[in-house]
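Margin note from the TA: students keep mixing up input and output lines. Inputs are the sequences; the output is the structure of the whole complex. Example:
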Amino acid sequence: MIVPIGPIHPALKEPIRLKLHTEGERVVKAEIEYGYVHRGIEKIIEGQTWQKGIYLSERVCGICSYEHTQTFAETIEQISDVDVPVRAQFLRVITNELDRIQSHFLANSTFFKSMDHETLFMHVLELREYAMDSIELLTGNRVNMGWNVVGGVRMDADERHFKPILENLDKIEESFDRVRALFAEGPALALRCKGIGVMSKKEAIKGRAVGPIGRASGVKEDYRIGHYTYDDYFDFKVIRRNEGDNYARTLTRFDEIPESISLVRQAIENIPKGEVRTPANLKSGYAMRRNEAPRGEVTYMIETNGNLIKNISIRTPSIGNMDSCAKYMIRDVPTVADAVSTYASCDPCVACAERVAITNEHGKTAIKGFDEVI
Amino acid sequence: MSSLMWYIYDFARKAWADAFTNAHTSSEIAEKPERFRDFPKVNKEYCIGCGACTVSCPSPNAIKIVRDEDTEEGEGLTYPVINPSACIRCGFCAEVCPTDPKTLECGLNHLILPEFNIIPSKRQFIVDDYLCIKCKKCMKQCPVDAINIVNDKLVVDQLKCISCGECLDVCPVNGAMKGVFVENLQAQKDLILLCVNYLEDYINNKEEDLRALQIDGLLQYDVPLSEIWDKALKIIPDEEIALEIITNAVNRLKIRVIDWDKDKCKKCQLCIPDCPTKCISFDEGEDTIVRDKDRCLRCSICYQTCPFSVIKYFIAKFSLEDGKIIHTTVKASNLNENIFME
């Protein structure tokens, strides 16, 4: 029997159709149909100037919108040979890591909500609010920050911003260990997570899983290693686990949060003085850049003609993660409720996954996977 | 009935409590953060309806210019309306708004002043349909295939163009391919106006030559450019750009000159009702006919109307040689002759 979930359903944050093939209570196979929130942002950006394009690229993803502007700006900087001032690079790291903290907290709280554990859901969202306050204090807005411009960041920050951010981080660290222990060592949650939705390392590579989802299965990919700012000025540890189940994915995200907090602390301690912006003139050319967003790698390919953006192609992490979730994670899951929580554990973001829509003479046809796109 | 009484009592009690405690709505309680990037504010009364905000907006459907209905008191206002669900709060509309004080305001947190320019390229290449002979040399020369044929016309695709300027070099027709400098349009207009005024004054000062000119006769002058060159460099400091703009302007310029011999005039006033801009009038105090030069279109209707050939009409053409001397040719019009022949 096929159990359809969605496109509108209380368990889903965004519209998507999840088809679960069941044998009795056991879920043996899952399919995902995309195509409900395709907006065609690349087509809107084509033919615009870079000043306009950076604001549109922010709208690709709702939760991890920051990394999109940074990758867009770095791609244009690579085309135009612009050197970003070191102070601006440090400010970018602070915002990027605060964004990662809030995104991981939100993903974990959604996972607890899908398991019907509302207490932990509320506790985690309470911690997330400190990160959101810090972002609001630094950039002025909570989600779509508009913080990056080509050649640096929009505004300078000083001690009256850094001090409250450090206080907020202290508050997160105070109760972080307790919340993590509630999940990792408590019997109620751990029993429902361990051994559910297992994806091996080979399957993760085959299904192109990236970010915390890939790293929970043993893939060692983190594009912060290789990024010029992180390589030159920062020390951090890449979190990896080998189990590849719901428990490992949630715990990987939990363990990355202290690393991000330490990165923010390092940046605030060592931030140099100087300019935060250099003027940029767009040259013609082609460049490709990839960066580590909270959910995995974001890739931008941009072609310019010295005047306008000629061609742009965006690849977001969620499409690989969601596709490998349907193919490998929900393959032998005991109950339908576990299938839904497995889907939530892969941190799906439908709006940024829908980068292409295929239409024929009968109207729109849904895409059933990554392979059809390539 | 009792429930209705209870409802009125409860309503009155709440209203009293609100007034007593000075309660506010939620939007007034919430504080905006210090660096908040807000939606632009619209001040309707200053809008001139130029549409610059809609051109600069990156988001589709975010900003629209509407016009209120006319009332008995006067015309309806024209002003922009912002759709909050599509607006992405970039602040470009407020940046480009030309009115003073601004119609669209967004505060200081957007900080886009040094970088915003709608067209960042210095030069834009455009084909003039009227002059183009479709030899397709530019198409063969273009390194990025930016020139295409659309509806039997050559069109430059601005998305592909890299502003190399090779099409301009190979074009055999003077003026068919234009390289327009888009940076300082107002300064360019001032420079062209300076050239035109200088040439027109020069010809108007040669009254005696013009009156002696026969039909089918030609007058030729060599006007030196050096007299306005210093003034031109004050408007546009770059010598190459200034010379190119003057060359383009002068080579395609055609000035019509109207000469008015007041001694011959019989004051018949036939020309006054025919003038389309009403620039000719009769001054009763001094008993003469007065022509306002600034409003005159040089349409030649007065020249065709005048039965005593008081008014004469000439056409002047120019070409710039070596960037120093403007060759000027003045020719008398023979429009009137043809009319009398009929």
